[in-house]
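User: My notes are a mess, but here's the protein and pyridoxal-5'-phosphate's SMILES. Can you give me a structure?
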Amino acid sequence: MKRDHTRTPLIEAIEGHRSVNPISFHVPGHKNGLMMMGNHSFYQGDLTELSGLDDLHDPHGAIAEAEDMLADVYGSLKSYFLVNGSTVGNIAAILSSCEPGDMVFVQRNCHKSVLNGIKLARAVPVFIETEWDQAGTSLGVRFDSVKKALLAFPHVKACVLTYPTYYGYAYNIRKIMEELHKYDVTCIIDEAHGAHFTLGTPFPETALDCGADIVIQSAHKMLPAMTMGSYLHIGSNRVNGRKVKEYLAMLQSSSPSYPIMASLDYARSYVGTFSKEDLDQTLQDVSGFLQALEEIHPQLIIEQSHDPLKLILKLEGRTGYVLQEWLESEGIFPELADPSQVLLILPLVKRGLSFPYEEAVKRISRALENAPVVEVSPVIRPKHSVRESHFSTLELALEEMDAKTEVLVSLDEAEGEISAGMVTPYPPGIPLLVPGERISAEVIWRLNEYIVNKANIQGHHRLVDRCVFVYR
Ligand SMILES: Cc1ncc(COP(=O)(O)O)c(C=O)c1O
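Assistant: No problem, the inputs look usable. Here's the predicted complex:
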């Protein structure tokens, strides 16, 4: 890093503007918070493209400097602030890398924004399967799956991988991308959960260090940035930077949020000045928390993935939803629950700041103190033919789907039909059904599991009546 990362140029510009006690005759309509009843000081930083505050879509001042400093921390050729999450980053990355009809490799359990980007680009997806553990957690893509797909489709244009996985598992993207680059494939890495990997060991390698062409990170997930604040980094000349900029300007608001951008500036400074001592302290706190959790309940299983800030809790004999409900009853709110487990995301804590780990241990103890030890019967999962293959394609092309009629069928009769809807348990936002894909017995089994557990399921479906839309 070449720059002084204690500086935050955009925050300085906003503070400079506020220091003159400005009177707002501009949007937004809350007039620097004056139109708010009560104390809402955060409105005061909600500004617009005033003199000195630069313009996200054509930056030459504070935003340009803040984005240069971002590129310096991450070692990219060019970095962008995003005000519409990694969602917009994924879509812009795909649109700028693919023409209609181009083939794209995509990790099957990707975020829905990736599939939406492929649809908007009218590209053709080839789904790459991932490895799964016993609990149904994805561990990442295997090299031989990509290699086999490359032999079948050597003219593929781009590849979109999720790294790390939602639960913090890393895998060998360096080797995978080296192979893909031999075929001149643009490698787009959705690193939504890995903006902190730049801190180095014990975190996994960053996607940019492994050779990615475009990387998208939700700064708001792991760094202290506001919701929707994300980064997009360009890592190589394989990427058409002009197109990326053009799509970002097209897809994002022409009135980008200054509080979000300021928080992105702050998050970059936070990670750019995070010292070895800060990291040691953070990890020491995490290991103390882990040790304390071990004592709480004989059936509480605590697992860490490759990312020490992702903690997976399982309570034997209970679903993740039950565990989540018990934790929430004591005011402990996990990131997400699934049928097997809950995921806790831990903070990066700088020295001088603190996180209430002790209080959390007390509350988790209270939440589980009356949970009896139960007998555990193994969950029998159906065999999945697609998971055993390395890749799969859609049964229908987009144009063919447009010409088909949709019919509502009961889940019990849906096996072998072609899905007409995207059906996505949320969180985490990984579609179980994708339009144009044949519906397997295993997917129906998993949907049933989500329905029984009353999970939130987004998309085009009628699951309240246990029905889905299919093409006929
Ligand atoms: C892997 C992954 N990619 C992309 C996204 C979208 O990110 P954002 O919420 O920043 O738009 C998410 C959100 O959960 C995600 O988990």
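The radius of gyration is 23 Å.
User: Great, I'll file this with my notes.
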